[in-house]
Specification:
mainly alpha, single chain
């Protein structure tokens, strides 16, 4: 006699959280991934086709997140797909930034688009500005980093107050926090390297900085700490961070050049500090070569489409 088959059903609340996580991850990948995202573009339709319970929960999540006002539920899947397609097109600005810092070429989004879509539109601009600022002067990069922190705060407020269900904003909220951290870390490192360059050349701003007892040794220690924080941020991240290679800090304005000069400076820093710098420069050089030769799938590299 065959044994009876036991049927287990997940609690509705748990199933809701799981499906919301899958959907919000798919929305994020549509924007940032340089790889094929066909499954993510059709995640709503695919999950809805699994079973009746999935269909009802997914429809409820998507209808709120994408602010679907239609009475015919058959129109929900095309509605979601249309917005995801628009986000995919807009995301090319951070998957393949143009080389001109003054240019922001991205297809315009519908001003009446859902708040989640508007949030991603703002996120795309934050990342784009970060990538372009890295190609400017240290002064421009530092001021831009400070401005980005303010915009990230606005985006976080928008996600906390206007996106429903809140679970659908989870991945974007985390990505915005990553951008705030990158702006803080990058701005600090660029500022410290600016000080080190001034110390090397005995410029007035170096003397001003020394009034606060900040020495070259302090700056090197702080740069090493920032590098460790950056590596932890990337290693612990569950989703790709656009244009953020392991050698990202070295790619910021004047950072690599300043530290390379210090590595051979005979008197400005101690042997121990120079050893720390040499290790940083060597690791960044190796990371840059590795990224260029064989891009890691967890780190976004320039890609069309």
């Amino acid at each position: 006699m065959p044994l009876p088959v036991a049927h287990f059903a997940l609690p509705t609340e748990l199933l809701f959280n799981i499906l919301a996580h899958v959907l919000t991850h798919s929305v994020h990948m549509v924007v940032v991934s340089p790889h094929d995202v066909e499954w993510h573009l059709h995640a709503h339709h695919t999950l809805s086709a699994v079973c009746f319970a999935f269909r009802e929960i997914v429809r409820g999540i998507s209808a709120k997140a994408f602010q679907f006002a239609g009475e015919d539920s058959a129109g929900l899947a095309p509605h979601v797909h249309r917005h995801l397609t628009a986000l995919r097109a807009a995301g090319i600005a951070i998957r393949h930034p143009v080389p001109t810092p003054t240019t922001f070429a991205t297809p315009p989004l519908d001003p009446a688009a859902p708040q989640l879509v508007q949030g991603y539109s703002l996120y795309i601009r934050i990342v784009y500005i970060r990538t372009q600022a890295a190609r400017c002067t240290p002064a421009i990069y530092t001021s831009t980093s400070a401005a980005i922190s303010g915009v990230v705060g606005f985006l976080s407020m928008l996600l906390d107050t206007r996106v429903e269900p809140r679970a659908m904003a989870a991945v974007l909220r985390a990505a915005a926090a990553d951008e705030a951290a990158l702006s803080r870390i990058g701005g600090a490192v660029v500022g410290l390297c600016d000080l080190l360059a001034a110390l090397q050349e005995k410029l007035p701003q170096a003397a001003e900085a020394l009034k606060t007892s900040l020495t070259a040794e302090d700056a090197i220690r702080d740069i090493a700490a920032a590098d460790a924080e950056f590596r932890a941020l990337v290693d612990d991240n569950a989703t790709p961070i656009p244009y953020c290679s392991p050698a990202w800090l070295a790619e910021l304005p004047d950072v690599a050049a300043t530290l390379e000069r210090l590595c051979v400076a005979p008197a400005l820093v101690s042997d121990d500090a120079r050893a720390v710098l040499s290790a940083l420069v060597a690791r960044w050089a190796l990371a840059s070569e590795t990224s260029g030769a064989d891009a890691d799938t967890d780190v976004l590299q320039p890609a069309a489409g």
